[in-house]
Structures are given as C-alpha cells and as structure tokens.
Amino acid sequence: MNRMMILSLFVALSAPALAQEPAKPPAKRTILQRTDVAASPAQETIFGTVDVVPGSGNGFHTHFGSEIGYVAQGRIRLEIQGQPSRELGPGESFLVTRGQVHRSVLLGDAPVKLINTWTVDKDKPLLTPAPN
After folding, report:
1. Distance (Å, whole) CA 64 – CA 43
2. Residue ranges in 56-100 assigned as alpha helix (H)
3. Which of 15, 102, 118, 130 has the fewest CB atoms below 10 angstroms from its CB?
4. What integer pLDDT is reported at residue 61 of this predicted model?
5. 44, 39, 35: which is closest to 124 by C-alpha?
C-alpha cells in the first residue's frame, strides 16, 4: 500500500512537468492597405517617414507611382484633386495612386509623423511639384 501511494504521488507530481507547453496564439498582423503595382517600367519600393512640423509642408505634387501612408502622430487633411478632402489622425491610412495631384496639410499645432511606402519608377524623382 505504501508503494502504491508513493507511486501515485510521483505520477501526480510528474505529470505537469511532462505536459507540452500550450500553443501560443500567432502574432497579430494588420494589413492597412493593399494595392497592385506595375512591374514595368522598373519600379522600387521606398519605405520611410514624413515629419511635418508647423510651418513646413509640401505644395501640390505627384509621384511616378503609388504612395501608401499611415498617420502615426498628429492630424492632417489629405487633399487629392478631384476628390473630397479627408481628415486623418493616428491609426488611419491613405492611398495616392500614380499621377494624382495631392498634398497633406497639417491640422492644429502638433507635429505630424507619417510612415509611408512609395512604389515608384526607378531613377525618377520621388516628388514632382504640380504645375500651378
């Protein structure tokens, strides 16, 4: 009886150590925007940030490709000619397609940080000012 009790106690204490670690949930991936891009002419994707402080900014301009942006900090008004303006804040994203004349305007006094990708024609300027 003593042997049986010791063996039962040993099995009870050893079982948790032999159990497998529970499966962990996968990392959360959030796709903010997805768009097809042309493979010809040769293109490159540029990933970077845009910092806009009060008193700075770009006038209306275009890109030789697509721009996808994510507002990390601050608020902007995205103006794309021919479309209604959009006010965007932290956590929101936008898409500007090839050749669309656009600009972003700082709203308020807080600086803005955008996290952007540009998929553009290689060997072309990233930004081309729009004619007046």
Report:
1. 9
2. none
3. 15
4. 92
5. 44
Question: 3-class SS at 115?
Answer: strand
115's tokens: 């996290």
Q: Of 27-36, 56-65, 94-103, where does the model show the most confidence?
A: 94-103
* Choice between 42 and 64, residue whose per-residue pLDDT is larger: 64
Distance, in Å, from the CA atom of 67 to the CA atom of 48, rounded to the nearest integer, reads 11
Q: What is the pTM of this model?
A: 0.71
Question: How would residue 57 be classed by pLDDT, with cut points 50, 70 and 90?
Answer: confident
Cα separation, 62 vs 80, in Å, equals 10
Pairing of strands 112-121, 65-73: antiparallel
Chain-centre distance for alpha carbon 22: 31
Report d(CA 72, CA 93) in Å as an integer: 9
Domain ranges of the chain: 43-129
Report whether CATH 3.40.50.2000 matches the domain 43-129: no
Instruction: Return the SS3 of 18.
Output: helix
Residue indicated by tokens 């959009």: 86
AA letter at 100: Q
